[in-house]
Every structure is written in C-alpha cells, then in structure tokens.
Amino acid sequence: STVHAAEIERTFIAIKPDGVQRGLISEIISRFERKGYKLVAIKILTPTKEFAMLHYDDLKERPFFNGLCDFLSSGPVVAMVWEGQGVVKYGRKLIGATSPHNSEPGTIRGDLAISVGRNIIHGSDGPETAKNEINLWFKPEELVDYGLDSEKWLY
Ligand code: RTP
C-alpha cells in the first residue's frame, strides 16, 4: 500500500474545442478522477494559433498541421495536469487510439467521438513530452500539491 514519490508522474491533458463545445468537460474529468488520478492544475482558455503551433510543433511537417492548429485555436480549451502512478501511459489508454474509428468502446474517444479531426481530447504521449507540454501551458505556481498523506487511499 505504498508508492514511491518517484513513481508519481504528471501528464498534460487538454479537452479540445470540440469536447468543450459538446459539453463533455465533466464527463472527461470524471473518468480521470474516478480512476484515482489527481487534478493538480486546470484552466480554460482559447489558445492563439501561434500557441497551438508551439504545442503541435512535432507535427509541423504533417499535411494536417495547419488545419489542426486552426482548430485548436478556434475556441475554448480546458488545459489540465493530472497526477498519479503511470498516468502518462494509462491516461493514453483512457483516451483511446488517435482515430476514434480504432479506439475501443470504454475509452473516451471510443465512447464519445467519431472522427480523427474531432477527437475531443489530447494527452501527452510520453514522460518527456508531458514535462514539455506542462511547462508550455502552465507556470509552476499554477500546480497544486496534495500533501504527503493523500496517497494512502490509492496505493
Ligand atoms: P493528441 O496528440 O491530440 O493526443 O493525439 P495523438 O497523439 O493521439 O495523435 P497525433 O498523431 O499526435 O496527432 C495529433 C492530433 O492531430 C489530429 N490528426 N488529424 N489525418 C488527420 O487528419 C489527423 N491525424 C491526426 C488529431 O486531432 C490528433 O489527435
């Protein structure tokens, strides 16, 4: 029933404009929260296109890059940091495959989305990406600390 502090990871999760406009904020937060992950940062904002381009910098050579950045900056986005053991990898599992055509029922995209260009949520794809994305979207003081005793009900 113990977990080492080193095993507690953080990941960046964003509800994209389609997820926000469709009223899926609480549904998505609920899935991460019920699993046992902790919400350590949250804000709602409409990113600029320039900011969207920084966020998706890895995809700048892809044909859908421009449209993707237009879309991410088209309306309010809920930016979050979630914390817990294995949250980077398991968060991707909760989210499901990139294309909702392939994502399993039971996953967020499998249950709630149809098309890859409107797949409602983003999650960091690895620990390094998570650190970079958290730093891009949040200042360190925007993240909370739950304290030393808060893990005992989970681990
Ligand atoms: P995300 O970064 O949003 O969590 O998605 P991902 O890792 O599962 O997928 P990635 O390959 O990094 O693509 C990022 C986002 O680009 C959009 N996309 N459109 N063929 C297309 O039109 C296409 N392919 C990808 C999706 O919104 C995807 O989430």
Describe the structure.
With 155 residues, the protein is of the alpha+beta class. It has seven helices and four strands. It has helices spanning 17-21, 25-35, 49-55, 65-72, 87-95, 108-112, 127-137; strands at 8-15, 38-45, 77-85, 121-123. The chain has a four-stranded antiparallel sheet. Helix 3 crosses helix 4. The mean pLDDT is 96. The structure holds ribavirin triphosphate (RTP). Ribavirin triphosphate binds next to strand 4.
Q: Which properties best describe this structure?
A:
7 helices, 4-stranded antiparallel beta sheet, alpha+beta, globular, single chain, 4 strands, 155 residues, 36% helix, binds ribavirin triphosphate
What's the arrangement of secondary structure elements?
Elements: E1 8-15, H1 17-21, H2 25-35, E2 38-45, H3 49-55, H4 65-72, E3 77-85, H5 87-95, H6 108-112, E4 121-123, H7 127-137
Antiparallel strand pairs: 1-3, 1-4, 2-3
The structure holds ribavirin triphosphate.
